Amino acid sequence: MSTTPTRPEMPQAGTPAPSFGTPRWIPILFVVLFLLSGYLVYAGIHSQHGLEAQLSQSNSQIAQLNTSLEKANGQIGDLKAELDLTSQKLGLTQTQLEQARRNAAAMRREQLVASRKLQAQIGQVQQQTQQSVGQLSSELGGTKTDLNATKQSLASTRSDLEKTVGDMGVMSGLVAHNQKQLDQLIRMGKRDYYKFDLYRSKHPYRVGPVVVQVTHVDPKHWRYNMYVTVNDKRIEKKNKTLYEPVQFYTEDALAPLEIVVYQIRKNEIIGYLSAPKQQGSQAAVSSPATKSR
Length: 293
Fold this sequence. Notes:
The chain is an alpha+beta fold and 293 residues long. The chain is built from two helices and eleven strands. The strands form three sheets. Strands 8-9-10-3-11 form a five-stranded mixed β-sheet, with helices on one face. Helix 1 packs antiparallel against helix 2.
């Protein structure tokens, strides 16, 4: 039986031929492995440098700690030496402490003695003070009695003051007959008073708000003459007698001003000028007497 060789069948058109080449994912895998290896190498080198830096820093810190330790050991040695010296001095310090205690006890005893002396002195001072207070109370009682007597004297002086009619026919206020009564008028403060002591002269002299010139004095008959200048007006007052209120007006005065002479000597008259009280005026108690020759 004969065998007829068979020819291989040709592939039909449109059927893909099978491929037996290298798969595509293998090169990609090699690339990934290469990159990963490079990263691992870089990371290892970077870690090595970091470890070396940390090691260097640790070595520096260890050196600093060794230096500090050596310094601390030196200080400990110094402290130990000072402790030894203090221990040596402790016995002496205890002796001094005992001496200080004895001194304090002596000071307390001295203070107690001084306190007792001070208390005794205080008792003496209190006794003297009580005696002084009793004496002062007696003196105050005497002063009170004198004050009452002074009040009675003032009341009597005031009762001695008189009212009279002046040379212009106007009822005068209270008229003082001496220095004591004038002082009483000044204390009453109802008018302003200006004391004067004037001599007969060719020259006028100011007394309070007016100008006065004494032209004649007759001590035998208790009379005198004068010129009074007020508001540029010269007024003559003649044959005026002792205690007579010599009256005249100023332009702005509602009541008359008065001159009263209560003492007449040779060529000299002594008395006062009385003026109505004005706002802010000064009393004669602070005004010096006017004296002329």
